[in-house]
Amino acid sequence: MNGRIKPSAASVQQRSRTNDAVFTGWQTVKSGEVFALYNVTAAHHPSFGSTLTETGLRKLDLRIPWTPVPPGILKKF
Description:
The chain contains two helices and three strands; from the N terminus they run αβββα. It has a three-stranded antiparallel beta sheet. It is elongated, with a radius of gyration of 15 Å. It is α+β, with helices and mostly antiparallel strands.
């Protein structure tokens, strides 16, 4: 046994209910500014699996997850 516990379907569904998306990283534009990217994890949402910005999540009425401090100048898209 490798010591890892595989999450049950119930625990995955629970996380999906509380987290509509997960932070995946920062995208840098030519000007040096950065913006956050998120993957949609909301179960049964039409955008499930899509990568969006914070603005995109807000337009779809999805909750914004915890996001670390950006490494540069933040840009809102």
